[in-house]
Design brief:
It is a single chain. The protein is built from ten helices and seven strands. It is an alpha+beta fold. It is elongated, with a radius of gyration of 35 Å.
Length: 339
């Protein structure tokens, strides 16, 4: 709160004060008072008004400066009321009460939205688990009667299962802290699960699944990591080249402070103009529009989940040659492993 701005706000009072001084001077002169009496009276009046003005300024300055400074320093500005003392001047009390009512209303609305969001999340999760049961039954029926069922039906069922999983993990990632459990896991077991889950697609597309040096343990959540890796492998299958020696290669690079999981494929690759946007929400890129009806959500959810788990994910690609996705796990004691 600047004194210059305060004076501008009080300009009407200053003008009235000087008009009053003029009237006092005229009045005292009319009564033929001594000059020293006139000047003394005007000086007392002027000094008293100046003291009142300065006193009012300094007590307001402290409150408003604290208000502005605390708002700028807080990540959640709506909590500023907790950092302020109830002021002594009337205008400040009105503002303090207004802030209290605004804050109360805001928190009530936030609680309402959070409860609605929680209810919706619980409903979606329940619905997904209910849907998974008939999908699982259909999958078992198809696998038991492969010779009698068209392969396109199996492909569409697999897509449906993948999209249901995608919705489930997207919803869970909104409240990730309650849904994941960090512990020491074996990458080899995760990769085996991915290979088994995608075995039919790998065989149908004649893609060689190569695994090198994956007997390494990292700190992560097994279900979440399996979903993340599954999204990457699904993309590699989806965007394969029509060649005989197609492959997906998984390599683990272990260093002193980190472990890097590399998923490489020799598919169609990603355009240079698209590479920086592949983790954006709903981004499909040229390949997604040309090759399949992609949702553009897989890599977005994968990145979001990696950030929640404390992992780093990045991607590099040369169009028409290869794509490599890197997931980096820190070896620092950021998380305490659960045995």
């Amino acid at each position: 709160m600047k004194f210059k701005d305060y004076l501008k706000d009080k300009l009407y009072l200053i003008i009235i004060t000087f008009l009053a001084i003029g009237l006092i001077f005229l009045l005292f002169t009319a009564f033929r008072l001594e000059k020293y009496v006139i000047y003394s009276g005007i000086a007392i009046f002027l000094i008293s008004n100046l003291i009142i003005l300065l006193f009012d300024y300094f007590r307001k300055k402290r409150f408003y400066n604290d208000l502005l400074e605390n708002i700028s320093n807080l990540d959640k500005a709506y909590l500023v009321l907790e950092t302020l003392e109830n002021p002594e001047f009337y205008e400040g009390k009105i503002m303090y009460q207004a802030l209290y009512e605004i804050n109360k209303s805001f928190l009530e609305n936030v609680n309402y939205i959070n409860n609605s969001k929680k209810d919706f999340k619980e409903y979606v999760e329940m619905w997904i688990h209910e849907v998974k049961m008939p999908l699982l039954s259909l999958s078992l029926i198809i696998n038991n009667h492969k010779s009698d069922i068209n392969s396109s039906l199996m492909f569409q069922l697999k897509r449906l299962e993948d999209y249901v999983d995608q919705v489930l993990y997207y919803v869970r990632s909104e409240n990730a802290e309650k849904d994941y459990l960090i512990k020491e896991i074996d990458l080899n077991s995760i990769i085996k699960n991915i290979a088994l889950k995608n075995m039919d697609d790998l065989l149908d597309n004649q893609i060689e699944f190569i695994v090198e040096k994956t007997n390494v343990k990292v700190l992560s959540d097994s279900k979440w990591l399996e979903f993340i890796l599954g999204q990457i492998v699904n993309n590699a299958i989806k965007y394969k080249k029509d060649i005989e020696n197609s492959y997906i290669k998984i390599i683990v690079q272990e260093e002193k402070t980190k472990v890097t999981l590399v998923v490489e494929d020799n598919g169609i690759g990603i355009k240079k103009s698209d590479i920086k946007q592949v983790f954006n929400k709903s981004f499909t890129g040229e390949n997604g529009r040309a090759r399949s009806k992609s949702t553009g959500m897989g890599l977005y959810i994968a990145k979001k989940m990696c950030e929640k788990l404390g992992h780093k994910i990045s991607i590099e690609s040369v169009e028409g040659q290869y794509t490599r996705v890197y997931i980096t796990f820190s070896k620092d004691k950021f998380f305490e492993p659960i045995k």
